[in-house]
From TrEMBL, chain A:
Membrane-spanning residues: 25-46, 123-146, 167-184, 196-218, 239-271, 291-309
Membrane topology value: Multi-pass membrane protein
Annotated ranges, domain ABC transmembrane type-1: 119-313
InterPro entries: MetI-like (IPR000515), MetI-like_sf (IPR035906)
Organism: Paraglaciecola algarum
SUPFAM superfamilies per the UniProt record, alphabetical: MetI-like (SSF161098)
Localisation per UniProt entry: Cell membrane
Pfam families: BPD_transp_1
Family: Belongs to the binding-protein-dependent transport system permease family.
Main location: membrane
Protein name as annotated: ABC transporter permease
Keyword terms, alphabetized: Cell membrane, Membrane, Transmembrane, Transmembrane helix, Transport
Amino acid sequence: MIKQNAIPTIIHQVKGFQWPNIGQLLGAAALPIVGIVVFLGLWSLMAKNIDTSLGQFPGPAAVWEQTTTLVDEHNAQMDKADKFYERQEIRNAARVAKDPSYQPKIRAFTGAPTFFQQIWTSLYTVMVGFIVASLIAIPLGIVCGLSKNAYTAINPLIQLFKPVSPLAWLPLVTMVVSAVYVSSDPMFSKSFITSAVTVALCCLWPTLINTAVGVSSIDKDLLNVSKVLRLNALSHVTTIVLPSSIPAIFTGLRLSLGIGWMVLIAAEMLAQNPGLGKFVWDEFQNGSSESLARIMVAVLTIGLIGFILDRVMLVIQRKVSWDKNAVLR
Amino acid sequence: MKDNQMKNTPHLELTQVGIDFPTPKGPFTALQNVNLKIKKGEFISLIGHSGCGKSTVLNIVAGLYQATTGGVILDSKEVNEPGPERAVVFQNHSLLPWLSAYKNVELAVKQTQKGRSKKEIKEWVEHNLELVHMSHAADKLPAEISGGMKQRVGIARALAMEPKVLLMDEPFGALDALTRAHLQDSVMEIHAELGNTVIMITHDVDEAVLLSDRIVMMTNGPEATIGEILPIELERPRNRIALADDPKYNHYRSEVLKFLYEKQRKVESVSEHKAKKVQDKNTKETDVA
């Protein structure tokens, strides 16, 4: 009797349990695909109707073609470099055989950087600028959060410099770097330093503000615990303040990295740092019939990398933060 | 001779304690003329309506607030800053959410008992968790345990500081009735075992009578002060079920209730409020007429 009753209930439950799940799965996978397909359709439709002095605006097909071309160019260049080093080795071996006292020299390959090397340069530059900014912004934010006076003193400066465009900073940074960074054998190129400093200047602010807000809104009870335990200033910061404000700091860091990545492209264009920004600029100046499609490849790459950077920060936040219930998106 | 003197000077003494808070309209006197002498090992409850300054008294003893007038003396030393010899159990446990129960207690031990070896620290942390029956959840984060368990860990952390006075700010206020009863029993056990001096704030009349040696009843603010002090002469250990029918217990209970709801009534009943309104209206009308 009981069994007979139980079976339909189970089936009912299973049905009830599975149906929305399939729907959810379909929604999760299908809807983004629908969005992308509609976008591609609209894009190719519009592209056909836009004529520029460099030919028709590239549609998805032209962009895909250029993507494969860029990969091929990269492989060809790598091949060339390999062969260049191979020839050097053979030549050096021959000279050493002739004259054992000869010290063989390896000269670096000086071919133009490929698209993928430019991506790497951009990533490297943005990370340096971002890390420098974070190393300044987090401690300063903690000071501002702990001391109302410090915050009141610094706040007008934050509000003043926060909205400044990177393009306004760039000429100043360029001139200062040229004047200050003088070395006969520079470890970094000036264009790299200029770009990284500009990125740092623009991505200081979100981290600084969010850290200050996070630190100043720590639970009062926890501050009282610190007082009752008579924690000294350093252990107060390391055991109470920093862990409490980790979620807020990460919110700031993610905003900063997003801004830094956007700023970097503009900075590289003007500073001629051999990254994605310079790629876009060079293609624009080049003005071949393929330039627009190649720039479009760069645009999509920039977007994709920005998205990946944000996801990486999210993964780090999940690892580091104690607040596992926080909604992270 | 000296010993005798020690016995005569109270363990913890509040003398003419008062506090003003600055407001835009000038200072607001929250407390005035609070005088209290507490013996070593005594369990004191502070009871009164909300807003009467019970927490303020506790915070002054803790050193988190500074009294405007008068002062607090603990073992012949003036209290003017917070410290672990006056450990506080906060209403909302206030455990560090990123540390396990064990680590929360360990932080207090490491900070207050420097000079202990690693092994001694570990033993002392475990001993205190055992005292509040929380050894089984030592490695859990605060978010993973119930409200009552968090409060137990909070008590363990306070006890681990080996305080001269244990200050509890409505420690069971946020808990359900059953959990609260469990924790009250635990606190009675611990008090019997360790003999700490305890000051506890409560809203709960039964809790106050059951746990205390003396109940300090506070008048309503502003300018709140101590209204009456009721000594509770019930034998320990006390059993809540046996006491429920005890005439002495019920007498104490009604004394506190009388103080709170007759002498220091805060809220007027609805019918009285209406009557007053009608009266007001009538007087206004007659004024107009």
